[in-house]
Amino acid sequence: MAKKRKPPNIKGDPRTFDPDFKGPVVNRSCTDVLCFIIFILFIIGYIILGLIAWVHGDPRRVAYPTDSQGHFCGQKGTPNENKSILFYFNLFSCTSPSVMVNLQCPTTQICVSKCPEKFLTYVETQLLYKNDKTSWTYYSQFCKSPFPKSDRSLSQILMDDDCPAAIFPSKPFLQRCFPDFSTKNGTLTVGNKTMFEDGKGKTRNAGELRAAANRINKILDAKSLGMRLFEDYATTWYWILMGLIIAMLLSWIFLILLRFTAGFLFWVFMSGVVGVIGYGIWHCYKEYNNLRGRQNSHFTIYDIGIQTDISMYLQLRQTWFAFMIILCILEALVILTLIFLRNRIRISIALLKEGSKAIRYVPTTLIYPVLTFTFLSICICYWAVTAVYLATSGLPIYKIIAPAGQCKHENKTCDPEIFNTTEISKACPGAQCIFAFYGGKSVYHQYIPTLQIFNLFVFLWLINFVFALGQCTLAGAFASYYWASKKPEDIPPYPLFTAFGRAIRYHTGSLAFGSLILALIQMFRIVLEYLDKRLKVLRTRECKTCWLSEPGEVGTISRAAAPESQNNISKFLQCCLKCCFWCLEKAVKFLNRNAYVMIAIYGKNFCRSARDAFNLLIRNVLKVAVMDKVTDFVLILGKMLVTGCIGVLAFLLFTERLPILIEGPSLNYYWVPLLTVVIGSYLVAHGFFSVYAMCIDTLFICFCEDLERNDGSTEKPYFIAPTLHGILNKKQLVPQKQKE
Predict the structure, then answer these.
(1) Can you tell me whether residue 298 is helix, strand or coil?
(2) Residues facing 508 on adjacent strands
């Protein structure tokens, strides 16, 4: 009778005892060669893309304003070198609806060295020319080219579009001339005037000019905010750098202390976190109490609505009360967690001590985050520079813009050199051929959006590869420590550099494979976010179309209201997709991390290593639940303490609350450098604590392998330290003889 075949184990077969196994396999071969070749080809293509973008792009187009002819204002080596400010001929034409559609004001724009400082019309210069030629000399500097005298008629000047009809007192703002508005006795004025001539026979008021300027301001709003943010960064960059350096030093100190006194330092972490949250509760109560009795402080957030000025919310008692409640809940959660997880915390402390011992024998691992940071900086800088050069590639493109917005040729491309001689200028009086953007009709220019997508995808791939390389390298170094029979005698020399060399030489393809999976998931998430933004814009336009329809057009409103249920369904599906891909990314990151540990130990390809790691974790699922997450919790608390300390110091400095010790900088938005310091400090702390996290993950994988390979007998002794084994496994063991 034939012997029945044993069904395969869904959890995989456990490892068996191998007397020749002494840690990471030395004799190994290259893995996932096909993915390695594809990865190298993509990198070569990425380099070629950067070179092409560098040849065609010009980042000066972002830094300098551009006149109607597409020339830069203030660019060195050009006729406009000393003319760094953009001047609008007829600012009133900027009230046209086409301004927001085309993002251009339909009037001639030239580069000037300074803005007008007084009221003056072209007609006035003609009347004053015989007695006072200086007025024309002053006026002509705001024309396309200087004229010897003002002997041409107003209609001829306006037809040829050589000079503005009038100039007004202005000041440079964002390298553009804007009217010098001021308020006098509650009345808006320009140059101390409320009424003035526009040079075309009409009397205008300051309100009309303000409306025109506001149209352009809406276009420049983002640039204005960017300039203020840039000013804050320029003022505080050295404080930000100092905060990041202090965060790095604190992280180093905590890691060194953790190496000797893991248990004691853990409770210091806990006390620090509880203390920081307690200080936040006290500060919120103090602000809440100080606002008592102040005018308008009793208003609610609902009363003031959505405001762009965040400081308005900080003037409300309700805001500080809400902050205080949130911090109280957080404080209670932390304290309850400490009480109910005290036994599992013992496991975390034991793992931290074992990890401390591993880092004591392999101290170079603490330097590796600097190498990771260097690689990441190179990738980020290359991506950003390539994106800017791609965005500024091409030739000047000119489009027809009509002030009334009713020209059938509007938004079509044109040639400014011959535009005035074409039939379009006659069919659309007042229409102008104005610079719109940079582009072209060549194959390269048509595929710039595709190249930007390629730039982003390869950037994500490289970023994930850098993280994968670091995880595999650290795993190889810590695995060499674990599987050494006698520590430190049997630990190979230079384990970190050896592991790094093995990862690069043999497993670049496997690391690229795992990174590619993550990059594809992240790219799909970005596409989902982009589609969500686009759909929101389309919904907004549909809503505006509905409200702008004629009163008699009832069908328009019903058609707009009909797809409301479809919009809700699409929103629900989008949320589901976002949630699913977020979970998928987290799961793949977890599996990749453990797969890289198996690659570092056994040198197999990515798929087999991922399968073996997954089966091993499934066979030890309870140990994973006990140790992995609790240890992560302990390390997160360390990051919170470092970030909290730096955040409190930065808050006191940037809000100028330390006048006795040091004088803080004067800022537009104090939260800009504050958030930068807080986020930067967390990333710095994360980089250093990730060494410990990878160490503990590697030791845990090795420990599970150790339990399957060996039984603690004299013939099959364990490699793990007796103290940690006693906590995690109650079986009797005969440990390896180690030199302590």
Answers:
(1) coil
(2) none
